[in-house]
Amino acid sequence: MIIEVRLKLVKQHFTKKEMDMTAKYIPPEWAFEFHGHLCPFMPIGYRMGKLAMEYLGVKREKDHGFFVFPEIGEGHPQTCMADGIQIATGSTYGKILMAMTFYGKLAATFYHPQKGAVRYSLTPDFIDEMGKYEFFVYRKKGVEPSQIPQRVSEEVTNWTYKQSDDFMFKVEPKPDFKFTPAKGSFNKAKCSVCGEYVFERYLRTKDGKPVCIPCSGFTKSMPGA
Ligand SMILES: [Zn+2]
Ligand SMILES: [Zn+2]
Question: What CATH code is carried by the domain that includes residue 214?
Fold first, then answer.
């Protein structure tokens, strides 16, 4: 579905004033394709990212200068927010600009070394109101978003578009927030056991020889690895 079609679908449910208010927070079509399904949370994350960028006065990140720390965890709903945040900000997981704190909260701190930091969280009132929509009846039964009737997914998503920023988000400046990214290095060496390249901060030494973490028998570096 192309963006014009989606916007037309959305517009059917909106007055002109509501459309003017919210249009800039409706994600582009490629965002839905990237995300994979229609749900309210990717667009909420998108809006959160856009608002945080406006608040801090930063543009969408092309390279490696804008960091986001979503507080979501694993095994709970609504983590789709993180995709919307990445789409809006360009602060992607692959550029190592996004790291989850695993607090299990619907919030994120946005940090730019020159512009400072701000934390956005969803208000409990907003979460409670949204939770009344039929979409969540399906989700609680274990129905995946792509299997939920489009009418049901659109109903809740369009409702979120119409809510005010103040109702949706609590905004907290974080003047003391500090974060030092790892220093970049192209240095690498071959593991003496498996022969694969390893970047230097991950090299370990065993019996005086360079080894990768899996070959080292030392503590694993990733949960579940
Ligand atoms: Zn989703
Ligand atoms: Zn190895």
Answer: 3.30.60.20
